[in-house]
Write a structure and sequence with these properties.
CATH superfamily: ApbE-like domains
Low-confidence stretches: 169-173
Order of helices and strands: EEHHHHEEEEEEEEHHEE
Mean pLDDT: 93
Radius of gyration: 18 Å
Strand order of the largest sheet: 1-2-3-4-7-10-11-12
Oligomer: single chain
Length: about 250
């Protein structure tokens, strides 16, 4: 069962092998809808918008919002402040990890229904497990940050998560918190492979904000591998990234 819907302002694809009646896909899509209703910075009725207006705080926040705020603070410490959900205008926007967090949670929901072969994608961030409907390992393309039609690498991630951060789809939306400005522009794309989509997503955001130092940060981080493309079209990968590249 493979289906794509537009949720959270992006195409989300749920591909669950042997989900003949679509119940796992429907559960995953409903979960993504719930996340959008709670965390969207664009919907005035979302919990995030109410929090940013000062209408909700502390004990009045939902368990999910409290969890995400805690994870964001943890990530800020783990990345020397390069991951920060407070925008230059003072508002809170946890989008840099909510997408990966939601993919990971939706994957757990699919597994809870008894399915072990699936691939979930939201706006280019992906979590896979097992095999596709042909019994083959999932294959994931990295798109060029300079051309939407060009795939520069094909990965075989196994049971892992993949996230890519860059400015070529949504423009300059990732900031260097230390300068309160958009990331330097030295890096055009940063792809991270991690144990799940949440880990890949949050560290892809931070590594991109670090600029040219980001790939060295990923190299030194246990359980993560990365592939960076700079503004001069030069790619740099971590020492273990090669094993994910399809032969």
């Amino acid at each position: 069962m493979r289906e794509t819907r537009l949720i959270m302002g992006m195409p989300i694809t749920v591909d669950v092998v042997e989900d003949v009646d679509g119940r796992a896909a429907e559960a995953a899509f409903q979960y993504f809808n719930n996340v959008d209703e709670r965390f969207s910075p664009y919907k005035p009725a979302s919990e995030l918008s109410a929090m940013n207006r000062g209408e909700l705080r502390g004990a009045r926040l939902s368990a999910e919002m409290t969890e995400v705020l805690g994870l964001a603070e943890l990530t800020r410490h783990e990345t020397a402040g390069y991951f920060d959900i407070r925008r230059p205008d003072g508002l809170i926007d946890p989008s840099g990890l909510v997408k990966g967090w939601a993919i990971r949670n939706a994957a757990r929901l699919v597994e809870g229904l008894g399915f072990r072969n699936y691939c979930l994608e939201a706006g280019g961030d992906i979590q896979c497990r097992g095999h596709n409907e042909r019994g083959q390992c999932w294959r994931v393309g990295i798109r060029s940050p300079f051309s939407e039609q060009e795939i520069i690498k094909v990965l075989v991630p196994g049971d892992a998560g993949i996230a890519t951060s860059g400015s070529y789809v949504r423009g300059e939306h990732i900031y260097d918190p230390h300068r309160a400005t958009a990331a330097s522009g030295d890096i055009a794309g940063m792809t991270i492979v991690g144990p799940d989509a949440y880990e890949a997503d949050r560290f892809a955001t931070a590594a991109f904000a670090m600029g040219r130092d980001g790939i060295a940060f990923i190299e030194a981080s246990s359980g993560l591998e990365g592939y960076a493309i700079d503004s001069n079209h030069v790619a740099t990968m971590t020492s273990g990234f090669q094993r994910f590249i399809a032969s």
